[in-house]
Amino acid sequence: MRVAAVQFAAGEDVAANLATCLRMIDAAAAEGASIIVLPEFCNHLSWYPDRETAHRRACTLDGEFLKAVAERAAGHGAYVKLNVTMAREDGRTTITSLLYGPDGSLLGQADKLTLMGAEGDHMDPGTERGPVIDTPVGRIGIYACMEGVTADVCRDLTLRGAQLLLNSLNSFATDEASLHIPVRAAENKVWVIAANKVGPLLPEALTPAIAERLGVPPEQVHGAGESQIVAPDGTVVARGPRTGEAVVVADIDLSLADVKTRPDGTDILAMRRPELYRPIASPPVERTAAPGADECRVAVVAGADPLPGVAEAAAAGAELIVLPELAFGEAGRAEVAGLLAEALAGTGAHAVTSVRDGDAHTGLVVSAEGEAGVQLQLHRTERLSWAARRGTGVEVFELPFGRLAVVVGDDSAVVETFRLAAIADADVVAVPRSAGEEWETSLGLPERAAENRLNVVSAWREGGLILDLTGDFTLWTPWEGPFTGRISHPIVTEAGPGVTAGVVHPAQAVNRFVSKNTDLVGGRAWRTLGSLTETAL
Question: Is residue 358 a part of any domain in this protein?
């Protein structure tokens, strides 16, 4: 099946925008695409002076704009997904994704659940989860932009059977293309087609003032392009340019999205424990814990003989030292705690690894005084089939530098684990693990830090990652350094064998506002996430 993501600019002239949409649908159909995805806000720029204007310029289901798109879909016998603002009969103005079928019928619509920044000034969030649309070509889920910056909405669509996720974007953030788009495919083992805007995203006359308020250079408030088609393993099979109109086309095999197993044979959906995820689908609670330290010195110790590295890192001033899982082989819990305590003697450092503790894979936090915390692996996998006894939740340990959570082994491949750590107000997460699948390192861990505002320190036998939260995060507040286009991506330090030192900033985990009124954790669409807690898949 051939599919397409099309990218283009849209302005304030609704008629001109419609003409562009129809022209780009024609261009994609000429390439043989049977599924065509358009960007977000196809009918008008996302910026409005007031609510009345936003409502007046919005589409209606029986209006000219959407009727023309439906007719063009029917003319080409193609599925067309787009996103527009919608004037609802109850007076609301929603940001709505729509999928039209090859006969021009409306197959499904989904109001955007999580709004970004100023969108919330004049538009209304959705109140119900979007549908999974069963079509002759496969099961399709639809979403838009900010809904893909965190894992929840795409996870919900996957759990309800989606094989193909269609994402419409209106974003100037370059980490959409480098991180948020492809990780949604890999973590759910589904196909993703994502279409982003290019060109100005704000009215030309207002751009300098709005950009100043955002803390972004005016020339960078343009759509970031790089529309893409991503395979279930996270491979980007086709990508558009950073600027300029484009039709991005690829031939895909949707049946690949039916294979949900990791290399060890573990099913990524069946391994989940929905009974643990109820906090994600519950009303957010304000953080009461004080912020962590402004700075924490950390180290990753990888390789075959960890003790000299632990002693070296502790002597050099590391406050948190993370080792791979089972770093001491078959040694038991008490023995490992004793060895680490001896290596940490005379320092205030804490070290984290895991051990085989009977029938449990257990994460250990150890200080010079001995065992300081225990976290059992939460999810069972075929790789460590002996680990039948599992933890009952994510523990958070109060340490001198802040609140520490430990994600043990293959728990790091489960998106909900880190979400629970964020909801429990962790500042830093230590992840002793194996190397896992390639996407887990290149996309998964950075995304867990980005979408949850967590500092992450991870180690496996061959190396590790130190993921540090930058203070340059919240749009609508002054940007401390040059704006690079990346908004939520953590600062990455890659570790090799031996000792790799770095720094994280626990206090930054308190700030979860990516933009005005847009809280990555507290602003989750919790009312629509019941599928995350349902036992039956």
Answer: yes
Q: Domain check: are 145 and 191 in the same one? A: yes
Alpha carbons within 13 angstroms on the beta-carbon side of residue 170 total 29
Whole domain around residue 140: which residue ranges?
A: 2-258
DSSP at 129: P
Closest CA to 36 of 1, 10, 68, 61: 1
- 3-class DSSP state of 70: helix
Query: How many domains is the chain built from?
Result: 2
Write out the DSSP string of 289-351: SPP--S-EEEEEEESS-HHHHHHHHHHTT-SEEE--TTTTTT--HHHHHHHHHHHTTTS--EE
Alpha carbon distance 405, 408 (integer Å): 10
For residue 264, is it within any domain?
no
Neighbours of 288 (CB within 10 A): 6
User: What are the pLDDT digits (tens) for 422-475?
Assistant: 999 999 999 999 999 999 999 999 999 999 999 999 999 999 999 999 999 998
Q: Which of 233, 147, 229 is nearest to 187 (CA)?
A: 233
243 and 310 share a domain? no
Q: What distance in Å separates the CA atoms of residue 356 and residue 264, rounded to the nearest whole number?
A: 19
Q: Are residues 325 and 440 in the same domain?
A: yes
Locate 229 and state its tokens: 């088609």
314 close to 344: Cβ distance less than 8 angstroms:
yes
Q: What is the CATH number of the domain that holds 178?
A: 3.60.110.10
Q: In the sheet that 370-376 helps form, which strands lie side by side, from edge to edge? A: 370-376, 360-367, 350-357, 320-322, 296-302, 498-504
Q: Does one domain contain both 304 and 426?
A: yes
Does pTM top 0.85 for this prediction?
Answer: yes
Q: Give the Cα separation of 352 and 475 in Å (integer).
A: 35
Residue 290: partners with Cβ closer than 8 Å, 6 or more residues away = none
| Of the residues 258, 288, 306, the one at which a domain ends | 258
Q: Judge whether 458 and 412 are in contact, CB under 8 Å.
A: yes
Helix 306-315 and helix 333-343, axial crossing angle in degrees, nearest 10: 40
**CA pair distance 235, 137, nearest whole angstrom:** 22
Distance CA 280, CA 393 (A): 13
In a domain, 265, yes or no: no
* Residue 3, CA atoms < 13 Å, CB-side half-sphere: 30
Per the structure block, which two tokens stand in for 473? 């995060």
Q: Is the pLDDT of residue 151 over 50?
A: yes
Q: How far apart are CA 426 and CA 423, in angstroms?
A: 8
Cα separation, 513 vs 39, whole angstroms: 24
Q: Do 414 and 431 form a contact (C-beta atoms < 8 A)? A: no
How many whole angstroms separate alpha carbon 504 and alpha carbon 491? 9
pLDDT digits (tens, 9 = 90+) for 39-76: 999 999 999 999 999 999 999 999 999 999 999 999 99
Residue 263 lies in a domain: no
**CA distance linking residue 139 with residue 150, whole number of Å:** 21
Measured in degrees and rounded to the nearest 5, phi and psi for residue 411 equal -60, -25
* Contact yes or no for 502/298 (Cβ under 8 A): yes
